[in-house]
Amino acid sequence: MAEIVALVQQAAATGQRIKAVGAGHSFTDIALTEGIQLSLDALTGLQSVNRATGEATFAAGTRLYDIPALLAPYGLAMTNLGDINVQSLAGAISTGTHGTGLRFGGIATQVTALTLVDGAGTVEHVSATENPELFSAARVGLGALGIITSITLACVPAFRLHAVERPEGLNSVLDGLTQRMASVDHFEFYWFPHTEVALTKTNTRSEASPWEHKRVDAGSRPLHPARRFLDDTLMSNTVFSALCSVTARIPQSIPRVNSIASKLTGNRAFADASHRVFATERRVRFREMEYAVPLESLPRALADLKAMIERKGYNISFPVEVRCAAADDIELSTASGRLTGYIAIHQFRATEHTDYFHSAEQIFLRFGGRPHWGKWHYLDAESLQPLYPEFEKFCILRQVADPQGIFGNAYLDRVLLPLPSVR
Ligand SMILES: Cc1cc2nc3c(=O)[nH]c(=O)nc-3n(C[C@H](O)[C@H](O)[C@H](O)COP(=O)(O)OP(=O)(O)OC[C@H]3O[C@@H](n4cnc5c(N)ncnc54)[C@H](O)[C@@H]3O)c2cc1C
Question: 242-255: per-residue pLDDT in tens?
């Protein structure tokens, strides 16, 4: 902590900019800087647990994949996660990282307190009762309000997830989508462009003992390691990567390949500890754009995206991912103030993405979409301001927390209102 304070004070005194970086897993340049880049990889681990409240405090650089083992001795778990676990905790909350589930917010909604070093080098401990305005905004702070050094999460008793994954007709999934999302714990689906198939994933929470599966049916057991390797490593990564490389060279083959892929994936049921179901391995390199739209607009936005892909004749090898989240009260959260549906589009790294992403963005914006802060988008402060009722409030708080703009970078210069004193 003292080293971070000294670095920040030195940056402020010399007019340098300083940027914390987590796992570097954002698709945008949000963690890049021409000044000092501060890795928090050495600031990791569990600092304390309040057994009475279930709150656990972690050093900010702790990777999400380390958290389950750190919480296990206390019988606790994070209540929801996104679909990978390599991010740092501070990086994940700072960009509004989320999973799926209409009763569950993004990871930042699990935060009950934070410690950060502000632009003057002052250590601020913030929570709903201590400096609540800064606390609220810093939960999804884009790295603009200070260097976070520790994060307290409201955890829940460890639980299992019962997962059912199966292909379904896209139209039947879109009919009644919002009711379906409301009626289960965690629902998401992947639509394979150029097909009418959606791979649905429904995860149901249970507090059952991890040993219960010995007495019940196969669908309530963890995946056999060989099946996990076949589905999640070989098919979803190795084979998929090879297919992407081939289809990048022969784009006309994509519709046929997608049609075959949509028949080969999915169709399994299993149960396991929550973190082993939420997070998957992603080894194929791609670019991603994700927009948050009001939940009720989700089916129409997806239908428009599908029509646009057909009209423009794009060949898209990657599935489109559709998720949802509860409304929250965080200033720059993509789910701020509204029940939210998420649509994520991807393009293989070797394939040109710009046209497709621009065209999709125009559709998402027609529905009042808000871009994920860590994924591709082309918006600036002027276009973002009307999307967030509390946008100006956030920028004013930034002015107070970091009057010299030392935590700024090119990305923040683009997406936030300028600080009067920033160079
Ligand atoms: C394969 C893949 C899958 C993904 N899946 C999902 C998903 O399921 N759901 C989802 O919502 N997102 C997802 N993302 C996006 C990802 O969760 C976010 O981009 C996240 O911010 C990455 O975390 P990180 O630790 O790499 O942060 P970085 O990219 O390193 O940094 C992100 C921001 O956090 C700031 N930051 C980092 N540490 C600190 C600190 N200590 N104090 C202050 N600011 C800090 C940085 O300055 C920067 O502004 C995915 C990304 C990839 C590559």
Answer: 666 667 767 777 77
Residue 171 C-alpha to ligand 1 middle, in angstroms? 33
**What is the C-alpha R_g of the chain?**
21
> Strand locations in 179-328, DSSP E?
186-191, 197-206, 268-273, 286-294, 320-325
Ligand 1 centre to CA of 38 (Å) is: 15
Neighbouring CB atoms inside 10 A of 125's CB total: 14
323 Cα to the center of ligand 1, angstroms: 18
Q: Yes or no: say if 138 and 94 are a contact pair by the CB < 8 Å rule.
A: no
Q: What are phi and psi of 138, to 5 degrees?
A: -70, -10
Report pLDDT digits (tens) over 266-302. Answer: 678 999 999 999 988 777 778 999 999 999 999 999 9
The whole-number pLDDT of residue 64 equals 97
The Cβ of residue 183 has, within 10 Å, a number of other Cβ atoms equal to: 11
CATH topology of domain 2-157+381-415: 3.30.465
Predicted confidence (pLDDT) per residue in 303-332, tens digit? 999 999 999 999 888 889 999 999 999 999
Q: DSSP state, 34?
A: S
Over residues 362-377, mean pLDDT: 98
Tokens 């998720």, residue located: 323
51 pLDDT higher than 60: yes
Q: Give the pairing type, strands 46-50 and 55-59.
A: antiparallel
Report domain extents, the chain: 2-157+381-415, 161-371
Structure-model confidence comparison of residues 252 and 134, the more confident one: 134
Widest Cα–Cα separation across the chain = 66
Verify whether ligand 1 is closer than 6 Å to residue 409 (CB atom). no
Q: Which CATH number, 3.20.170.30, 3.40.462.10, 2.40.50.100, 3.90.25.10, labels domain 161-371?
A: 3.40.462.10
Residue 30 Cβ inside 6 Å of ligand 1? The answer reads yes
Give, using CA atoms, the residue closest to atom 32 of ligand 1.
Answer: 91
Residue 411 CA to ligand 1 centre (angstroms): 14
- The pLDDT-based confidence of 184 (bands split at 50, 70, 90) is very high
| pLDDT score for 93 | 98
The rounded Å distance from CA 91 to ligand 1 centre is 4
pTM exceeds 0.85, yes or no = yes
Cβ contacts of 144 within 8 Å, gap of 6 or more: 398, 401, 402, 407, 408, 412, 416
In short, whether 40's Cβ falls inside 6 Å of ligand 1 is yes
Report the nearest atom of ligand 1 relative to the CA of 282.
1
